[in-house]
Write a structure and sequence with these properties.
By secondary structure, the protein is mainly α. Helices cover about 55% and strands about 0% of the residues.
């Protein structure tokens, strides 16, 4: 279990994850400076998303599932509009 968490934290860093971590650091530091607890909470959420590589709906949760088009032969007709 600990190895899996460590692997999640230290692998797969891409541009979006780095960007999310940077925004989280800026939001948390600004919240600490101004005493804004709402901004601190939002920065904390972004920090957790960056650390655990999740997005808005979990890991790859926003992906649209593909359609199984096998065996379909729907003919598409087009009408030219002038």
């Amino acid at each position: 279990m600990a190895n899996q968490i460590t692997a999640t934290l230290f692998s797969g860093w891409h541009l979006t994850r780095i960007f999310r971590a940077g925004i989280a650091v800026m939001a948390c530091s600004e919240a600490w400076r101004t005493g804004d607890s709402l901004l601190l909470g939002m920065g904390g959420v972004l920090a957790l998303q960056a650390l655990f590589n999740t997005g808005c709906c979990g890991a790859a949760g926003c992906a649209v599932p593909g359609k199984n088009m096998e065996g379909r032969s729907d003919a598409v007709t087009f009408e030219e509009v002038k």
